[in-house]
Each structure stands twice: as structure tokens, then as C-alpha cells.
Give the backbone structure.
Amino acid sequence: MFCQVAGYKEYFLLNFAPMSRKMKNKVVTNLKIERIAAEGKCVAHHEGKVVFVNNVAPGDVVDVRITKGKSSFMEGEAIAFHEYSKERVEPFCSHFGTCGGCKWQHINYELQKTYKRQQVLDQFTRIAKVAIPEVLPIIGSSHTQYYRNKLDFTFSNNRWLTREEINSGKSFERNALGFHIPKMFDKIIDIENCFLQGGISNEVRNRLREFALENGLSFYDLRNQVGLLRNLIIRTTSTDETMVIVQFGENDRDGIERVMQFLKLNFPSITSLLYIINLKKNETFHDQEVITYHGKDYIEEKMEDLKFRIGPKSFYQTNSEQAYELYRVAREFADLKGEEIVYDLYTGTGTIANFVAKQAKAVIGIEYVEAAIEDAKLNSIVNGLDNTSFYAGDMKDILKVEFLKNHPKPDVIITDPPRAGMHEDVVKMLLRLEAPKIVYVSCNPATQARDIALLAEKYVIDKIQPVDMFPQTYHVENVVRLTLKS
Ligand SMILES: C[S@@+](CC[C@H](N)C(=O)[O-])C[C@H]1O[C@@H](n2cnc3c(N)ncnc32)[C@H](O)[C@@H]1O
């Protein structure tokens, strides 16, 4: 569910317009990086054309080798720095530059927030092209490190070697446990310390790797699809619960038992210790049996007086603290008085639906993933909420005239689609429904702006609130309130 597009037209122009290859591999010298555009790409200009450059900062002066030349823009990589921007700060992680995780560590956090807010403003000006109120100051994250509650590490027998390692001529351990190198599915960077997740995360990963190496357990071969140790997922909560899931690529009972016993004995604070034997070609496990080795088969997160059960297959926003800020904005924008029918579209595990249920007459949540809907229902039960109902299916197939014949019309619609935004049929249905208020939560302001351009036929935008869920990255969440034109 990754959508890099602005609008359909922009997407076409950017990707399929005739390409001028003349520039490829040419080096453009002394380019001044001007600003940051969508998706964190830095922008400079050369001979009237936009040049997108990665891994630089506004204010840097660089020589750029052109890697892609199209008729309207070019892409390139910085090969030499003449001046470093004053906006730069020293990256705190030794993996910065190789690991794809926190690409903005070299930009100070205040400026990261400014750029994120600017991204929202740019997308709404360029794509939505409708009248907008002031974009409110972004709600920053009080934690700019250790803010994630979930990390997913991959075992590999093909560790990524740095240029220095290769040039040294030495031989190195090739087994690794860490993250995928961007755009290289079979190369894994061995992570020694990750600043994204707190608790026992770093220790579990490092000690498990050490144990596996000492005991000669095989690390997964991503090309040939063999090997015992495949994947490690660590989930933590603000209530100090920890879930650890190990995926095995072979059904080796003895090996599995040794790994799980090691984790159980050495990490008594793991409250949910699970494993999966996944013999499939890919490491997704929504269709695989999850076996509880020790403890509960879920962890529990708290938000105000609500409890949310998170199972191994459940989605939960990855920055819990900022998810709360996001939901608070959504609830404030919904401005519920207790009598409203609320639709929560793309409800996931019903977190927003359950979060606003006490202030509404009834909440209807719709979501694609059936297991998530089961979690949403369970979360209503756990919290004693009896005014919610949930439906599983593709939004464009569920939100139809038939459904509306059997359910009350919404007074408020909260919608939180994936990065690709809403299907056009869903937008059309929202226009037909004419709910007095729509609260649109999005992790991609470009597709949000595209959808809002269509909704503008009947709605005005009266609030725009960006929220930062992912410090050190270009990602930005944005909440918009639309009110029906009178
Ligand atoms: C950004 S998440 C929002 C989750 C939820 N609102 C939350 O805060 O936890 C988007 C959700 O949309 C669901 N989804 C994606 N495509 C869908 C579709 N075509 N129809 C229904 N749901 C869909 C995904 O499974 C995911 O749970």
C-alpha cells in the first residue's frame, strides 16, 4: 500500500513522460540545494530544470551525478560537498546513511517540523487547488528517538558490507540480523543499535543473534529460501508489555525449541512469546498459524481509560504517544455532542471508532482486513462499549446504496485511508452521503489533497492540522476537517 503519487496526472507526467537520456551520468557542479519537496527529496535547479537529490539538506552546495534525466526533471546523487548547510546536525546513529530508517537525522528537529508542515501546504496548494485556512503549527513528537512500538528485523546470510569493509580486503561474518537496505530485498544491514524502539528491543536482537552464531543456527538465505531463522518482530507498549515473534523458515523442532527457550529464560519481561513456522516464499504471516510459546497471545495498550488488545496480526499505530495526539485532533474536529451517528472508515482495529464511541450515539467502522474487524469488536467488548458495529470488506464494495438502506446516515464521517488515499467511488459516495462533517486523517497529504479536490464540490475545508508521528523521517500525518456547504 505504498503510493508515491501526487495526483494521477502528476504521477503520469513524472513517470511516463519521454525521457531525455543525454544528462544521465553527467556531473553538475556547485548545485545549491534550495528546499525539500514531497517525499523528502531535496530540490535544486539546473538550466531551468528541477533536480531532485537525496541525502542532502537545503543550503548544501554539492556536485551531483545525474542518475535519471526526464524531460521535466532530473534525479541525482551528491558526489562531493563544497558547503554544508547550517541546518545540518550531527546524525546520532552509526547506521545513518546506509540504513533506510531515519533519513532526516542530519536535519535538526525544529526544521524537520517546518518542512513537514510546508509539505502539507505545498500539496494542498499544488494539488487540491481549493481555498484553505491557515495550516496549523505541526504537533511535534515529544520523543524524537525510541518512539516506535514495533520493529521488524530480518535474518540473512548475506550481510550488507560497507565500502570500507570491502576495500579492507578482510573477511567478515556474513550472517546478519537487521533491516533491509532500501531497494535491495536480499541485502540486510546488521543492526548494532537502533534508536527507534526502547525497552529490551536492542538487547533481544543482539543477544539472539549472538546465540544463533554461537550455536551454528542457520540464518535465512533470502535468494534460495532456506535457513532456520527468518524474521524477528518486537512489539512494546507504554504499559511495559513486550511481544516477541520469531519466524522460522524451517520446521526444525530442536532448533526452534533452543531459540524459544533461550528467549524465555533470558528475557523474563517478554509477556507474549510467539513463533511462526513460515515455509512460504514471503515473510508476511497474516495467513500463517501463530504459536504461543510462553505468556499471553496479545499485549495491551492503554489510551485514556481505554484498553486496546494487540494480537500478533493486529495493526496498531506505531508511535503510540503521537497516535493519541492524532486521535485527539480527530475527536476535537468531529466535535461530537453525544447524538451523532459516526462512520469510521478504514477503521483498522477500530481504535478511532472505540476512542470516540462514548461521545457518539453510534459508531460504524468499516475495514478491509477481517482479523482487524475481529479485534475492533473485541476491543469494544473489553471496554464495555455497546454502541459500535464493525463490517469487513473493501470500502468501495461495502459503502454502497444497499448498505445505506440498512444503516442510519452519518452525521460525521471520520476517514483514515492508507497512503493511496480513497478510491474514487468512495469519494463519490461521500459526496452523495452529504454528512455535515468529514474528518479526513491521512499519512499522505498528496493523495489527501487529491481526494479533497473532489470533495470540494460540496465541502469547504475549515481546519488543517499536521501531526508528526515519525521524527527523523519525511513522513507527516495530516488531519483535515471539511464541512458541508450550506
Ligand atoms: C492508515 S490505516 C488506519 C487504521 C486506523 N484508523 C488506526 O488508526 O489504527 C488504513 C486502514 O485501511 C485499511 N484498508 C486499506 N485498503 C482498504 C480498502 N480498500 N477497504 C477497506 N479498508 C482498507 C487497511 O487495512 C488499514 O487498516
User: Anything to note?
Assistant: The chain is about 25% helix and 30% strand.
